[in-house]
């Protein structure tokens, strides 16, 4: 069995790829109706058992970018109409939008539109989440108390700078949703905590310095 992190499943109209470096087991694929993904089957992904439109829609449910597709008609995955970040209950930041994540490898195409980024400080795959928040017993419900200054528009690039030993610096239109799903903060730039120590989560308050947070 290949140890390559990316596995491609080829179909007649669409190829689907799975990147094990990004998967955090949310299960949007395996729990989808139909037989595109069936655990225990070899291969577990069969692109030709559903129509192409359904395959695209299911792949786009993957919140971490671990699943991607290559439509053989040449039509790429479209960027969402708006950039949004969900602050997951006791979990990561789920980003959905037109993303540019600093340092993301070129062979991780899924994170151009969907990504799960660590906010507990414990991931061994920073800036991406690797489920270390579970073992670290990270606790934060994902509440957001501030409304933000507002958006300059609804779309456009969301740049995510990964500050060494510091926060995630956002630049671009973005809406931040709480762990309960409420759309809360809206603005064009902010810094998000990724050390897990901020007293003003999800925003950075400089606690990474006192905590001695190291991003490597």
TrEMBL record:
SMART domains: ZnF_CDGSH
GO CC annotation terms, alphabetical: cytoplasm
Keyword Iron assigned: yes
Pfam families: Fer4_19 (PF06902), zf-CDGSH (PF09360)
Ranges where the Iron-binding zinc finger CDGSH type domain occurs: 90-139, 177-214
MF GO annotations: 2 iron, 2 sulfur cluster binding; metal ion binding
Keywords: 2Fe-2S, Iron, Iron-sulfur, Metal-binding
Name under which the protein is recorded: Iron-binding zinc finger CDGSH type domain-containing protein
Source organism (scientific name): Thiorhodococcus minor
UniProt lineage: Bacteria, Pseudomonadati, Pseudomonadota, Gammaproteobacteria, Chromatiales
């Amino acid at each position: 069995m290949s140890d390559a992190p990316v596995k491609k499943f080829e179909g007649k109209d669409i190829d689907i790829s799975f990147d094990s470096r990004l998967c955090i087991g949310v299960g949007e694929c395996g729990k989808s109706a139909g037989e595109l993904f069936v655990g225990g089957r070899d291969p577990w992904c069969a692109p030709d058992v559903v129509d192409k439109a359904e395959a695209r829609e299911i792949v786009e449910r993957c919140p971490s970018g671990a699943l991607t597709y290559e439509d053989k008609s040449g039509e790429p995955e479209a960027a969402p109409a708006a950039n949004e970040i969900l602050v997951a209950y006791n979990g990561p930041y789920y980003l959905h939008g037109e993303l540019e994540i600093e340092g993301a490898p070129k062979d991780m195409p899924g994170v151009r539109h969907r990504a799960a980024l660590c906010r507990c400080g414990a991931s061994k795959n920073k800036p991406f989440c690797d489920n270390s928040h579970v073992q670290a017993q990270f606790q934060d419900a994902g509440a957001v108390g501030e409304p933000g200054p507002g958006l300059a528009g609804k779309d456009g690039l969301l740049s995510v700078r990964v500050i060494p030993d510091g926060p995630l610096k956002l630049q671009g239109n973005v809406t931040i949703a709480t762990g309960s799903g409420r759309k809360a903060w809206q603005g064009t730039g902010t810094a998000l905590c990724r050390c897990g120590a901020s007293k003003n989560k999800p925003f950075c308050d400089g606690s990474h310095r006192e905590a001695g947070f190291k991003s490597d």
